[in-house]
């Protein structure tokens, strides 16, 4: 009796898999119908051949034998033929199923999960076309949430980082910063094992300590291909990325910030350390005439929703907007551009800036005001606020916001449970899709 529930559960899973095969959009029913039709036509053709050709005596003996099975009038003569035909079709279906199972096993795919994989990919292929711009933990968090709803994601990642592992590789190989790219590839990878390996940071080893495996992989491909631009297709295929991840530019670049006290700070890693009591007034990239990948511009042109952030304002979001081709494409786009506001200000970089200041900085550097702003509505626990306040960070809210900004803001509970102020990936993805994505009329 103890095995009955297990048997029922397995039978239920089998029925569910069978229904999934017949779900609209799977691309199965049309071929199944064609198979049945061709089988029936083939049976008629074979019957015609045997009855009118040299095998006439075989057909005659077969029919007489089959008729004998129906005596004494157990069933009509034609019913015997229908029964045999049904058995033949069932055998043909079984042979195809077993052939597919053998082929799937030979490629390392479990036959039981094949329908789930196909169903997921078919459903995701019809999802909204979304372009996400930024970098750091915020962007990878967003991608983690979006990839369960759509496979049509393009991440445009800032590559101006010059600290840590990325900085060392940039200096050694004269390449773009790979760190934020690695995080995004891990977030969108279909393989949990690959995602874990990409983020593995070496804790020892001369020359390896501090580097992540993903950074070294991208550095290797960049070195082999003479830059990442030539290796993009290989990267997406090797890492089994659900969507696309591209650098904002494939040319090494340096972030330069102008402060309110007249100073200029060169390098992303120096910005927070050197701001002091001043504020960041503007940032630029050197060299300024940076090229954008054609695939990036195509993705922006075909997008149904463009998302800026979440992430550090002056070191993650705005640097990607400073590539001339990207800025021009975003300004020309007719689809909504949404800024996902940070939960808190960042000490040094955005200390004292209001939400209005954040939106104004994006508008100034991009040349277009975001059509929408997504803001967290869930209260951050007092103890978490206190800990951040001790470091100089404050909650971003609508306090002091203008009427124009308030008309653009949409709020949703986006806070992830825990001891840190971080967006919940699933809640963030759902809020963007529900509040800003346009209903799809095609596909």
Automatic annotation (TrEMBL):
UniProt-listed Gene3D superfamilies: CofD-like domains
Record GO biological process: regulation of cell shape
Function as written in the Swiss-Prot or TrEMBL entry: Required for morphogenesis under gluconeogenic growth conditions.
Molecular-function GO term, any one: LPPG:FO 2-phospho-L-lactate transferase activity
Membrane-spanning residues: 76-99
Domain of life (superkingdom): Bacteria
Record-linked CDD domains: YvcK_like (cd07187)
GO cellular component, one term: cytoplasm
Organism: Deinococcus phoenicis
Protein name (Swiss-Prot/TrEMBL): Putative gluconeogenesis factor
Location within or outside the cell: Cytoplasm
Family designation: Belongs to the gluconeogenesis factor family.
Xref: InterPro entries: CofD, CofD-like_dom_sf, Gluconeogen_factor
Keyword terms of this UniProt record: Cytoplasm, Membrane, Transmembrane, Transmembrane helix
